[in-house]
């Protein structure tokens, strides 16, 4: 009996999460190391490691789908059945990395919870390794979802951005913030969000 793509994704995600504790980030050498003829460089993305279902589910014009399919180069840090971690090609700081799903989803809100969970479960050990390698003790976990939020590549991804004290990457004086007011407008906002959450729950579990 044939199973749907969604069922297949859920099964793969469940298996990946069960095996996650057995996986460890392993970077075996410099990304500048030459590849021996006839072998595959473990630090480069290769099409042989991608399942047919994942490779065929992408967007032809998406650079991340091309990286997943091995059509475009990238410096690979980690890979499992669900997601891939690569160095950002235009980093904000040394070690700036991206976690992305192998299947194509245009933004976070349309990405299945099981895929988001698999990506999120990789954050602790990936960030720890990245911080050690870059001699940092802090990092930002960033998601840009939608054009107004700064999303440029419309394939869901997380940013891991290593930080050091005084790096002035985002100067605090450049951020405009104000205290939330205890007024009817705030209460209306809370009620509106809660109503939307009820609708979302009904859609998922109804």
UniProtKB/TrEMBL annotation:
Pfam families: HIT (PF01230). GO terms for molecular function: adenylylsulfatase activity. InterPro entries: HINT, Histidine_triad_CS, Histidine_triad_HIT, HIT-like, HIT-like_sf. The active site is at 157 (tele-amp-histidine intermediate). A motif (Histidine triad motif) lies at residues 155-159. Gene3D superfamilies: HIT-like. Residues 63-170 form the HIT domain. It comes from the Eukaryota. SUPFAM superfamilies: HIT-like. Signal peptide: none annotated. GO terms for biological process: purine ribonucleotide metabolic process; sulfur compound metabolic process. PANTHER family: ADENYLYLSULFATASE HINT3 (PTHR47670). This is Adenylylsulfatase HINT3-like isoform X2. The gene is LOC120260366.
């Amino acid at each position: 009996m044939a199973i749907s793509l969604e069922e297949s994704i859920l099964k793969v995600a469940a298996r990946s999460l069960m095996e996650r504790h057995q996986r460890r980030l392993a970077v075996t050498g410099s990304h500048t190391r030459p590849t021996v003829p006839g072998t595959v460089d473990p630090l480069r993305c290769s099409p042989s490691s991608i399942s047919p279902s994942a490779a065929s589910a992408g967007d032809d014009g998406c650079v991340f789908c091309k990286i997943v399919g091995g059509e475009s180069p990238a410096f690979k840090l980690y890979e499992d059945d669900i997601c891939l971690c690569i160095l950002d090609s235009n980093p904000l700081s040394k070690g700036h990395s991206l976690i992305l799903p192998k299947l194509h989803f245009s933004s976070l809100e349309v990405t299945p919870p099981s895929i988001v969970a698999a990506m999120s479960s990789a954050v602790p050990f990936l960030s720890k390794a990245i911080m050690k390698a870059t001699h940092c003790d802090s990092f930002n976990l960033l998601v840009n979802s939608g054009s107004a939020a700064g999303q440029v590549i419309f394939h869901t991804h997380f940013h891991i951005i290593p930080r050091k004290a005084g790096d002035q990457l985002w100067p605090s004086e450049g951020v405009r913030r104000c205290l939330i007011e205890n007024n009817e407008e705030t209460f209306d906002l809370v009620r509106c969000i809660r109503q939307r959450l009820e609708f979302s729950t009904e859609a998922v579990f109804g």
